[in-house]
User: Fold these one by one.
Assistant:
Number 1:
Amino acid sequence: MSRDVLVVGGGDPGASLAAELSGDVLLVDPAPVDVDDGFVDGLASADGTPVNGLDLLVHTLYPDRSRTPTPIEEMTVGHWAAACDVPLEAAIRVARGAHRHLVARQGTIIFCVPLVGAAGAANLVALAGLAEGLRVLARSLARSWGPDQIRAHAVTLHPSMFLPPEHTAAAVDATALHDPALGRLPSAAEVAAVIDALADGRMTSGLTGASLVMDGGAWMGG
Amino acid sequence: MTEGRVLEGQVAIVTGAGQGVGSGIASALAAAGAAVVIAARRAANGEPAAESIRAAGHEAVFVRCDVTQADDVHATVAEAVDRFGGLDIMVHNAVAHAGRPGGVQFTRSDMIRPQIVTATTASFLCARASLPHLRRRPGTLILLTSPAGVEGSANLPIYATVKATQRGIVKSLAREWGPGGVRVNAIAPVALTPAMEAAVAANPSLETRLVARTPLGRLGDAAADIGPVAVFLASDGARYITGQTIVADGGGFLGL
């Protein structure tokens, strides 16, 4: 039986990962403000079949507001909400709605988060807060959903996989990252292969709550 | 400077200081010499907290403040500056009620957003409003997070998530504000507060379980165990420390 995979969040890295992941992949890109507890229940595949059970859910939903560097004194309350609070709540509501679909398959939920959360980044405070919140949401879900045999992880990726090219260099400077030890950043195919492995019960059934950093060795802070 | 009064002449705001950890931190900052603004939503808590500090011979004033409202936060900062001449220490401690323990799918829907806003929007508002004044000293911003904000929580997943968000904010603001000399840190405490006492009353085995996994064998005291950590972070002794989370929980969490 083929795996049912849901990727929530378009653009990069969601779209490029969706193209590389194994299984029947449904990519959706909602506006975070439109996501409620019934969001997953309301989804259907291209042929109109409603989502009914998930083997893997990959969260990559980061609005443009989150990805735009801005000093904190220049941010408005509305800007902050759009960049941090609203997508954070959307992620929580995606998870709430996905629970019954993941239980049905003893599935896996993975949050792809930018490294700016773990490492900190000047002028990307809202994105960093959002990322660190999601990294720990994965741990909380791992703890509470473990008895249901649902596994939860965070995969931390280099900022360049989330930010528009014109902002990437500034983000790397703002995060004070080293050059990747491997001399290059991983491709989307390499990241997707790791996510596939994390969702493969034959390989990783004893692993949950992990926070993997996949950035070619740019950051080794734990 | 009188011995022990390492914050003599400084001015602090502590949000959520009407009780619990916030009250303990406010008392400790005042005892260390800072003039303290008790920022709290309810005068019923805030006034007695300020009065208790004044009764001990220190300087404190209560200002009503809903930390989720920009106007309230700005007015609180303005009050501190007008009354005491500046702002050196901003401590955001206020937290929303987390609701009944349980998995994320069981959290009451209407209890999600208040937790997010009280942690993240309020951190933003406190940071933005205090920055011009902190730059002048330069001063320090301290956010209260939690060990759950590092290791996650099966029973308080929203709380753990928003507390982690604050750690991301701390690390990034430390990078953003460091060149101006403003330091930003977090404290992750575990203490016997009114909220903890209520949780223990609802779940009598909780305290025993928490103490059993705490190497120091007891829960923290807000004023005696957590307050001094804030004093240290605000003091010159911590002048080279920024972007850090100090876990003050008796050794229960050792994962950093």
Number 2:
Amino acid sequence: MATTYTAIATVEVGAGGASSIDFTGIASSWTDLVLHLSIRSNRATQVYDTGRIRFNSDSGSNYTASRRLYGNGTSAVSDAPAITNSGLFEMPTAAGATASTFGNIQIYIPNYAGSNYKSYSSDGVSENNATAAYASLIAGLWNSTSAITQVNLLPYSGTLFDQYSTATLYGIKNS
Amino acid sequence: MHKVIVDCSTGTITEVELTAEEIAQREADALAYAEQKAIEEAEAAAKAAAKANAEAKLAALGLTAEEIAALSK
């Protein structure tokens, strides 16, 4: 871990869940951002969900289709889901998994305050006290030269992040 | 439905009801998800059908099930 790894803010979802988690007012003081998530969505039946990530609340078609590699220990899929109004991250645990289990996810956003388009990567695993579990790697791109001042996290097919989900935003300098 | 907003400049966390515009965006997202899922399922079904068709043709040529399975490893 870089010595300049600084926790900017952390949040735990309360009773009733949350339809999104929005980090706003992000200063340009760091070189990179990292999000660590322990998260679960209310997607029915399935053991995992995908998440959407948006920057500065931009829901326009300004995201390159994410490159994704995911698998469950038996088979693997490499694809690029045709979603351009958000980036993607994985794997929040979902309602089909063991209760009170949460997916572990890291999202890395280098040079978030620069003037180039903003890339990011996510790596994550679902958690389940049963056989079915998944791991995923995603590379994404927001086609904007604006500095990132907001990060918006939403469930993809579920409608809520469940209570006790947590998200922490870190800033990294000189990484 | 509400969203959680974390203001990193102050550390303040607030829970805010979604606006009509945000609800409309969620509904549009859900529609896009359904469309994307339909595309993925159609592609998976087409791939499975092509695989089954290819295996049937190989079997007709005299390959055993073990020999056909070995081709995909």
